[in-house]
């Protein structure tokens, strides 16, 4: 059996091999940086979440004779529609803290 002997590369071939190695190193580093950026973003999203809030227990006092007509959620707000003595009123609360955010009253023109 005859073995083929690899001859020494010519200077042009050696320069080409060095250039290919350098390009492969750049591509490998770019890929590693991209993968680490994705992993960092995922880790940030997982550990930066607000977590579960403690359940809030709040008693909202309504005016005497008020009736709740409807409730709903709009984004991160809780919306409660009331009938207070014939006047419609909308109260909004923050869904996370249940603190009052706004109040809108509808009255008839005289």
Describe this structure in words.
This protein has 110 residues and is an alpha+beta fold. 34% of the residues lie in helices and 29% in strands. The chain is built from one helix and four strands. The model has no long low-confidence stretch (mean pLDDT 87).
What gap, in angstroms, lies between the N and C termini?
A: 113 Å
Total E-strand runs: 4
Strand order, sheet with most strands: 1-2-3-4
**Order of SSEs, N→C?**
HEEEE
Summarize the amount of helix as a percent range: 25-40%
Tell me, rounded to a whole number, the average pLDDT.
87
> Which structural class do you get from the secondary structure elements?
alpha+beta
| Shape by Cα distribution | rod-shaped
Helical stretch tally: 1
Whole-angstrom Rg: 34 Å
Unreliable segments (pLDDT under 50, ≥5 consecutive)? Answer: none
Question: What's the story with the biggest beta sheet?
Answer: 4 strands, antiparallel
Beta-strand content: 25-35%
Break the fold down into its secondary structure elements and pairings.
Elements: H1 11-47, E1 66-74, E2 77-84, E3 87-94, E4 100-106
Antiparallel strand pairs: 1-2, 2-3, 3-4
Provide the descriptors you would attach to this structure in a database record:
1 helix; 34% helix
Describe the structure concisely for a colleague.
With 110 residues, the protein is α+β, with helices and mostly antiparallel strands. 34% of the residues lie in helices and 29% in strands. It is built from 1 helix and 4 strands, in the order H-E-E-E-E.
